[in-house]
Amino acid sequence: MPRIQVLDAHVVNQIAAGEVVERPASVVKELVENAIDAGADQIEVQIDEGGKALIEVRDNGMGMAPEDLERVFLPHATSKVGSVEDLTHVATLGFRGEALASIGSVARTTILSRTAEAEGGYEIRDDFGEIGGVRPTGMKPGTIVRVEHLFGRVPARRRFLRTPATESGHIKELMGRFALAFPGIGFRLVSGERQVLATRPGEQRLERIAAVFGDEVARDLLPVSHDEGDLSLEGFVAPPTRTRRDSRLEQAFVGGRFIRDKTITHATREAYRDLLPPGGQRPVAFLFLSCDPLLVDVNVHPAKAEVRWRDGQRVHRLIRHEVRKVLESSAPGVQAGAHVQTPGRGDPFDLARRSSRNPGDRPQAFDFGARPTQRHESAWSAERAAPPAVSGSFRGAAHVAEDVQEAARPAADFGTYEAGSPHAESPPLPESVGGLRPLGQALGTYLLFEGEDETLVVIDQHALHERVLFDQINARLREAGNLEVQGLLVPNVVHLSPAGVERLIEESEWLARLGWRIEAFGEDAISVTGVPALLRRPDAEEALLEILRLLERGDRDGMDRTDLLHHTVDSMACRGAIMAGDALHPDEALALLAQAEALNHSHSCPHGRPTRLVFKKTDLEKFFHRTV
Ligand code: ADP
Ligand code: MG
């Protein structure tokens, strides 16, 4: 017997199934796409146990005649593509003729179908690869596909399925995308007894956005619309003030397919460039492109949401330009290069941005009136009889106030500098650290010091603090193996995509080492019961979302764990650090400096930006022509 064998159809189908059918949502995707291709305008999906027990898709499309049903489970059986030429202008969602053969090989799959002309319907079953005969059945025109016990006889694959809640979350997300892409079609999703999504045929795109994501998201969206003949763009974008912390509401569709495409994402971000507040905020944008099939190759991967552009630059330009135009015309004063002033950021007195309660009650760092004596008119009083509470790890003034209110909160102490606590007898602070005496804070961002060696030193407070935290976190991880947790009395619920929830929960042990305590909270949220003590709480959610983005990027680019940890620590240090614009008391400046002194490379932040600028007295003299 020769060693090389031609695989039999069943094995071929199982291999194809490995590509096409990853999880229940992929089955739903294939079946709903078939229903759309069949011209249905009403599509109903019923799932049980997240699709693991049952997936049933009913449509009122063109149906199949018995002679077509006979072939429906055969590999590469399709009515959509007949020749190689056809492949270059596929107008349907499916065309490989692989889906039903694959699904039939890994589940008990029954198809019932009736064309409009036929007297009655017919049914056929593929029971894990065993295809039965066609039998008559009674039904309305259209098609019903029932998929039971997915992977029931493929235990290795079944093990990879997640909880019903997670799997139904994926299906819900998928159905939402179909509902957005095809407003003409009425979609319904029922999970067990519960109706999860219901839309009527012939709705407007905006109604669909509201139906899927809620009225709040649909409010104030700006319409985008531009037609270049062979390429057109339609959609809705939110004004830059309505951003998100994750990219869930950045969705793009090409010819009705939901896709993830770097060109589109990048073009959208470019359109919002300099309009979004800093800190990784994402726009809200629903974009629908249609184009001549010749301009795009959808034949990239059967299950992946990817396309290949013939002329990516043209697509990029179209989106960037049209979205930008809409944003600029909607907001007076928003022009290329202009910054939208985001509330809070950049205002040293707005402590409310980070500390949610009673911002008005907070002592302000520059509250000179409160100090008993005031010998200087400079920005910082030299009177330091009552040093403010600076907990062990340096934290901004706003958070100090928060600590005082919540005395139970343990200090995020990494043991490098102890500047005193509000309750203990505070030891007096030194006048200077490392020969540097604080002069004041300039432009809300730079700390000015006078050096003993006749220098004027300007320090970027964020860059330096970031460096300090970065090194402290790494040292603590090296020595103790984990970061300190700040337990939350009231858990913080963070809403995410089901996939995001799953990914974070998978990493919960690793995250616990980094000071995060999280638990799944339903299928699309997590409950955060503890945050790294070094992070300011209101920033924690954002930090967690950023870690999720890093994880996803890591999965995609095959980042190794060391790199992942490095990036994560980096991001936590950045978020934990005082920001440009945070008002600082001189004692806090000294505390920060003292922590930095303990480090080796405090002269640059973890990104390599310098942290300090030194002017020598002689430089200044030269500049002012005091010396010849
Ligand atoms: P593809 O969609 O790539 O052609 P499938 O395996 O998904 O391959 O489907 C095979 C064929 O079965 C389709 O080409 C279509 O002719 C027919 N078919 C599948 N589902 C339906 C449906 N809901 N209504 C009518 N015809 C269908
Ligand atoms: Mg198909």
Describe the 3D structure:
The protein is of the alpha+beta class and 628 residues long. The chain is 33% helix and 21% strand. It contains 19 helices and 23 strands. The strands form five sheets. Strands 1, 2, 3, 4, 5, 6, 7, 8 and 9 form a nine-stranded mixed beta sheet that branches. A hairpin with a 2-residue loop joins strand 12 and strand 13. The protein is elongated, with a radius of gyration of 30 Å.
Task: Summarize the helices and strands and which ones pair or pack.
Elements: H1 9-20, H2 24-37, E1 42-48, E2 54-59, H3 66-69, H4 84-88, H5 99-106, E3 108-114, E4 121-127, E5 130-131, E6 135-137, E7 142-148, H6 155-158, H7 164-181, E8 186-191, E9 194-198, H8 205-213, H9 215-218, E10 222-227, E11 231-237, E12 250-254, E13 257-259, H10 262-272, E14 285-291, E15 296-297, E16 308-309, H11 312-330, H12 397-405, E17 436-442, E18 446-451, E19 455-460, H13 461-479, E20 485-495, H14 498-506, H15 508-513, E21 517-520, E22 525-532, H16 537-557, H17 561-576, H18 586-597, E23 612-616, H19 617-623
Parallel strand pairs: 1-8, 12-14
Antiparallel strand pairs: 1-2, 2-7, 3-4, 3-7, 4-5, 4-6, 8-9, 10-11, 11-14, 12-13, 15-16, 17-18, 18-19, 19-23, 20-22, 21-22
Helix pairs in contact: 1-5, 2-7, 7-8, 10-11, 13-17, 13-18, 16-17
The structure holds adenosine-5'-diphosphate and magnesium ion (MG).
Residues 30, 34-35, 38, 59, 61-64, 72, 77-80, 94-100, 143 line the site of adenosine-5'-diphosphate.
